[in-house]
Amino acid sequence: MTKQDKPSRSFASDNNAGVHPEIMAALATANDGHVVAYGADPYTDEAIKIFKKHFGKHVEVFFVFGGTGANVLGLKAATRPYNAIVCAETAHINVDECGAPEKFTGCKLLSVPTPDGKVRAEQVKPFLEHLGFEHHVQVRVISISQATEMGTVYTAAELKALANFAHKNEMLLHMDGARIANAAASLHTDLRKITGDVGVDILSFGGAKNGMMFGEAVVFFDPKLAEGFKYLRKQGTHLPSKMRFISAQFTALLGKDLWRRNAEHANRMAQILASEIAQIPQIKITQKVDSNGVFAMVPKKFVPILQKKYFFYVWNEATSEVRFMTSFDTTEEDIKDFGSLLKRTLK
Description:
Strands 1-7-6-5-4-2-3 form a seven-stranded mixed β-sheet, with helices on both faces. Strands 8-9-11-10 form a four-stranded antiparallel β-sheet, with helices on one face.
């Protein structure tokens, strides 16, 4: 690949970003020598200790390859096939996992409309009417995303209220934390205060969207929910043989403050991008910019022109709402250049 062919940065997804240099260095270090496979290695021991430092000594932690696997296996551990899982219509488990949660858990997903991506207790209440009635699925889990697919963030108070509602009605709260670092950075808090401390039962902890090459974690705040999970992980094809390469990445990410530095940078870039966009009358920002996503209405005829230089995804074809995502490696120069492109194109 020549220098001219080298792909430029985009605003399509934080998945499109490369690997943070500190993560890459950790991978290189872990590549030295032989260790026992399947997690019986010092790298995995160290990473689990760091997770427990962040989330509490009582948690159970399991590393998997990707986010869909983390969500599916975490939900499967907490449900029976006759159960149901309530989520937002925009939830990743509902829209972007190819039916995997329903296929592998056997559960029905019950989605609710959420203008800002957040599920609220009053939206779940109607599903409780059929508890104990054998002709209907039995609601077992409320699954939320933090940050949401709309880039918004649940406050600790909102999470606590939803968890209390779930537990009061013998349900569990599952969190898809693919962007949990961005949410914590947005709220200026630590990871535990918006997970275990507010009543989250199961967490899918994301790494790939925050500078890692690959790897996610399933965190159980109630150890009883993790009983037998090691078998589910193996059966679910998510037991990495060379687990040290996931573990070493998590140690680099969570061992100090890299997770926060990456997330704070991505969030700050989104704020700068939103400020640039706000100067253009033809574009309307549609969601509060809490994390590293900016949602906006862009006149449809201009979208293909803009995508040629800086690719991004159309979120809603009908309304021409698009999504701009920033990453740990987004620069102010990227945003300045894109802002100039927007102004030239929409003048």
